[in-house]
């Protein structure tokens, strides 16, 4: 494991820099990295996907615990450094690849089952990756992610709070969210200006709440939730009436919402995922 001073020296020697555009903050605290892997529940039978390898803080403890690890890293300078140093173990396959463009179904074929993902994410790509996980929910077992505290709070928020939003609703419909660990700025280089939180998102085995939600059109649900939160301070009636979704013409929408047991004047942040599924189900009948 490379220490904090070594990170700075390597970046200087290689004429590299943590990219502000990518939101790179390298984890440098050995015990925190080991604890994250421990809390992730990685076993000797697991074939793990690491998103964002950096200087290998998580890579080494992951490779020690797992059968194999595939690590995706977009920074060509860091990839070149690893290849020259030969610092990664034999069961770690490093790939120069943009994780947001990664073919998750192909990775699932390679690993022989649902994906187990561990990542210290650049904050700038947290939301796109979370939506990518949603799109691939059928082939992802779990994802243990280092996130900006504000993003983590949104994932675990309750209805009628300011943190509650699109990702909260959609992930609650198919996954279980758990907070694992708080991580302070001093455990990174460079130090971020915000606190971080490690969360675990479990898609499989299917969480009890998700199992109770009736079958529904997920794409329609996603459009419904996004339209509802587009202007979250408006009532649900006003938010949806201009969405173009089935049954949302202003003369039809009040009846549809009443049929779903929803007050048309309620704000979207007060609805549970079950409420949104009822609305989406009625819309499907009108499509």
Give the N-terminus to C-terminus distance in angstroms. Answer: 56 Å
Q: What global shape is seen?
A: elongated
Annotated CATH homologous superfamily of the largest domain: Vaccinia Virus protein VP39
* Level-2 CATH architecture of the largest domain: 3-Layer(aba) Sandwich
Query: How much β-strand is present in the residues?
Result: 15-25%
Strand order of the largest sheet: 4-3-2-5-6-9-7
CATH class (first level) name of the largest domain: Alpha Beta
Helical content (DSSP H or I, runs of 4+): 25-40%
Average per-residue pLDDT, rounded, comes to 92
Low-confidence stretches: 1-5
Order of helices and strands: HEHEHEHEHEHEHHEEEHHHHH
Q: What is the total tally of β strands?
A: 9
Q: How many H/I helices?
A: 13
CA-based gyration radius: 21 Å
Summing up helix and strand content along with how strands pair, one would put the structural category as: alpha/beta
The main pleated sheet reads as: 7 strands, mixed
CATH fold type of the largest domain: Rossmann fold
Overall structural domain count: 2
């Amino acid at each position: 494991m490379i220490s904090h001073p070594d990170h700075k020296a390597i970046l200087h020697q290689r004429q590299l820099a943590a990219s502000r555009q990518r939101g790179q903050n390298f984890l440098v605290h050995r015990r925190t990295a080991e604890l994250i892997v421990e809390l992730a529940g990685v076993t000797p039978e697991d074939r793990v996907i690491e998103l964002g390898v950096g200087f290998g803080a998580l890579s080494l403890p992951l490779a020690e615990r797992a059968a194999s690890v595939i690590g995706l890293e977009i920074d060509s300078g860091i990839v070149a450094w690893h290849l020259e140093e030969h610092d990664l173990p034999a069961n770690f396959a490093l790939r120069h690849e943009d994780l947001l463009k990664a073919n998750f179904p192909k990775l699932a074929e390679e690993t022989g089952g649902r994906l187990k993902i561990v990542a210290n994410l650049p904050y700038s790509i947290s939301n796109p990756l979370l939506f990518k996980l949603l799109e691939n929910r059928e082939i992802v077992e779990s994802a243990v992610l280092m996130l900006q505290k504000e993003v983590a709070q949104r994932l675990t928020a309750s209805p009628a709070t300011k943190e509650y939003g699109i990702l909260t609703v959609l992930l609650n419909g198919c996954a279980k969210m758990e907070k694992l660990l708080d991580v302070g700025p001093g455990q990174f280089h460079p130090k971020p200006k915000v606190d971080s939180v490690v969360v675990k998102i479990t898609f499989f085995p299917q969480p009890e709440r998700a199992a109770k939600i009736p079958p529904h059109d997920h794409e329609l649900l996603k459009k419904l939730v996004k339209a509802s939160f587009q202007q979250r301070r408006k009532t649900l009636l006003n938010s949806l009436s201009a969405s173009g979704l089935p049954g949302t013409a202003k003369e039809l929408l009040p009846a549809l919402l009443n049929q779903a047991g929803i007050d048309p004047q309620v704000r979207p942040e007060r609805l549970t995922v079950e409420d949104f599924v009822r609305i989406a189900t009625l819309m499907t009948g009108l499509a």
